[in-house]
Amino acid sequence: MNWGTQISTVIGAMLGIGATLLADRVRYRREQASRVQDVRRDLYTRYLTALTESSSSLRLIILRETDPKVRYQAALDAFRDSSVLTRRYEMNLQAPPAVKEKSDRAYRLLRQWRDLLDTKPDLSLTSAEYIEALDQFHEARKDLQAVMRENL
Asked: Membrane-spanning residues where (predicted)?
């Protein structure tokens, strides 16, 4: 019996099995990374959508409502209905620290903008406080989008 042939066959089989296992592992990691990226993309889209819906609602409330109490209550309702707080919790759980930090800043500035309707009853689209709050929020959202793109 020729041992060299049998040893060559065993070594060849081991190399074949090893290569298959390695290829499967590489494919698994690539698919998992793709799934994580898809989840993050969806998360980021939902959060940015909630921020946009809430900020658009605040603008409309300022245009439509004149009674300060009604205006602020409408702002609170719009803020709640936009699910921005729920989306913020999702970001806190799933986003990496750099994205979480920027998302928290955008949320806090949006909330401060909303609270201006309570502290400044005469707030209008042309008032300095409104313009400053809007600019700060837009800058924070822009920074958030940049860090999100880097993460994807």
From this structure: 6-23
